[in-house]
Known about the structure:
This protein is mainly alpha-helical. Helices cover about 70% and strands about 0% of the residues. The chain has 2 domains: about 5-60, 434 Repressor (Amino-terminal Domain) (Orthogonal Bundle), CATH 1.10.260.40; about 70-110, no CATH class. The longest helix is centred in the C-terminal third of the chain and has 18 residues, at about 70-85. It comes from Clostridium botulinum. GO terms for molecular function: DNA binding.
Amino acid sequence: MKGKLLKQLRNEKGLTQTEVGNAVGVSDSTIRMIETDKRNASLDLANNLADLFDVSLDYLEGRSAYRNASEVVIDILGRVDMIRACTDGQNIDDKIINIITEYIKNKKSK
């Protein structure tokens, strides 16, 4: 887990390390050590933190620029709208839509 991301999320919510620790069942010193990259969060703790801040584990690990699945969907839908605009109102081939749909399904399952 990226400590800087955890600290950023905590600050965005206006929470103290103690408040975050209480919310996920650990001490404030545990949160402090994670934020300073002196300790790694267990999978259970990482899941609890992701739930608390409504982000994906991939985001907390720095593997995704998207905070959660809805950001991915919004981005994809925006790209579909852009493709539609470039086709001058012509219908997009169903194959392209299927490819996009499969991509989203595969990303969600990882």
